[in-house]
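hey m, so remember when u said the tokens were messed up on ur end? i reran from scratch. heres the input so u can diff it against urs
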Amino acid sequence: MNEKFYTLPKEKQTKILNAAMEVFARNEYNRASTDLIATKAEISKGLLFYYFHNKKELYLYVYNYVEKVVENAVVDDTFAKITDFFEMLEYSASVKARLMKENPYILEFATRAFFSKKEEVSEDLNRINSEQIDQLYQQYFKCIDYSKFRDGIDPLYLYKMLVWMTDGYMHQAEQSGIKLEVDTIQQEFHQWVHMMKNMVYKEEYLDIHKK
């Protein structure tokens, strides 16, 4: 991308990125109109492509931008103090849910991006999503107390299972034409986390044994 984009005031940068996120969230990549993005951002299409050389570059930049927005929201002072694996999962989910309610296009954009198929950006997205699981795990769970787990349990595999379950749930909803609701997703996730905790934690760390 053109480094000139970073010389814009932060408010203008955000306006352009949010306009792109909205249009990409509402449309498949191939049908997303760069004319509409420029209109919503209140800049010319020529200027949009001055900052971003092509549509794919803009899309991937927005994808990275959304990841950073979520990361900055989750990794706060409270986050740094959490040492319990499942408490971390619940906390991260609650912060993401609040963020998605404040900006519903984040959920729509992320869902379309994850299930992108046979589009110009699909190969790049699949690679990024595949690499992201291990990267996020290393970042989010580096301060976790793993002594609470029963012997033979692989926390990374549990994390991947929850990611796959969430993805499967969202994919099924999309295939069925069901509108994804943040509260519903969060409720389902809470149940999965509670179930897994009871399966993999030592008995003394289960809620039923706490006084």
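this time it looks ok to me. The chain has ten helices and no strands. if urs says something different then somethings off w ur setup not the seq
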